[in-house]
Amino acid sequence: MDAASATSFDPWSPSFVADPYPSYETLRSEGRALPFAPTGQWLIPHHADVSALLRDRRLGRTYLHRFSHEEFGRTPPPASHEPFHTLNDNGLLDLEAPHHTRIRRLVSKAFTVRTVENLTPTVQRLAAGLVDELLANGGGDLLSTVAEPLPVAVIAEMLGIPEGADRDMLRPWSADICGMYELNPSEETAARAVRASLEFSAFLRELIATRRKDPTEDLISALIAAHDEGDRLSEQEMISTCVLLLNAGHEATVNTTANGWWTLFRHPGELARLRAEPQRLLSTAVEELMRYDTPLQLFERWVLEDIELDGVHIPRGSEVALLFGSANHDPAVFDDPATLDLARPSHANPHVTFGAGIHYCLGAPLARIELAASFGELLRRAPELRLVSEPEWKPGFVIRGLKELLVEV
């Protein structure tokens, strides 16, 4: 690995996390597949390669459907991490065919387009209530007042979690579990993830048992009822699916909301444009904010068969780090990618924020509804919303977000 690639990618540096995009430009100029010794991964910074590898079945989110840890040249995770891996490895995010195909087909029977569309009034009602609180207080932390509570409340409503029934634990459980998706997580991070996995699983197991006896109109009841030619989801698959819907579904939405407003405050001309024509621009603005400052910066894939990229041999057993944030700023695909253009048309904005291929985000339609509701409500009812102080970034890079976003109305 040459010195340039080693110094231009530093995901543990606060300054890099605050603005990784200049470093991505350097990476793209250095090549299409760059070895990164600290994580033992190959960095993939170009949009065409990220998009292609997301669809390439020679790569996978897991390798355990084809190889043992030993056959793949990898060390099994410590036994103490088992509760996290049981939860994580039975979810759609980390499964490959045929298990992924089967579970996604069953989940899709419950998590339909109509189900999501029917949630729109609920999402709008919840967003309005949260903005009410922000307005009543004259402002506050937009992150903790609006951005975080909305997707958590939506998921709680979807799953049929009663008010007060540990709803306040959903966000901490999710944050602790998602800590394991950062690069080289510490043993302390793993311990928190294991504890959250056990507690969240126990909570859902009890809720599933209740819904088996007394089904309602919620998603858990629909998952219990979902079947295909007699095939059904196991209890563990249902638990892992519910956790994934919370983790993957709301982490991105939270960060898109807060990071998006921080982006708008730094581009007052575009913010004024959006405020002047919210109905015309809101849809493209949401897509552009997801592209401009990508909430999930990196996704990993295991190389299941030898591949070659631009003359670089990447052997089986390797891991590639697909840099979504870099791909979304690739000038080979996006016209003037460093410029925020809230009217950027959809055909000119093929961002990879929701992934691609068989792992394309199942919750993408719901995320768009939530984002449109929260941004729309704030644009309409807080037309003078303004920043109080420059925010700080959390230390995480893969799931990249602000610590808080203080505003006044």
Could you list some keywords that capture this structure?
Cytochrome p450, 18 helices, disordered N terminus, 409 residues, 3-stranded antiparallel beta sheet, alpha+beta
What layout of secondary structure does this protein have?
Blueprint: H1 3-8, H2 14-18, H3 21-30, E1 34-36, E2 41-44, H4 47-55, E3 59-60, H5 82-89, H6 99-110, H7 113-118, H8 120-136, E4 139-141, H9 142-147, H10 149-159, H11 170-178, H12 187-213, H13 219-225, E5 227-228, E6 231-232, H14 235-265, H15 268-276, H16 278-292, E7 298-303, E8 307-309, E9 312-314, E10 319-323, H17 324-327, H18 364-381, E11 386-387, E12 406-408
Detailed description of the structure:
The structure is a single chain. The protein is of the alpha+beta class. It is built from 18 helices and twelve strands. It has a single domain, classed as Orthogonal Bundle (Cytochrome p450). Strands 1-2-10-7-3 form a five-stranded mixed beta sheet, with helices on both faces. The chain has a three-stranded antiparallel beta sheet with strand order 4-12-11. A hairpin with a 4-residue loop joins strand 1 and strand 2. The N terminus is likely disordered.
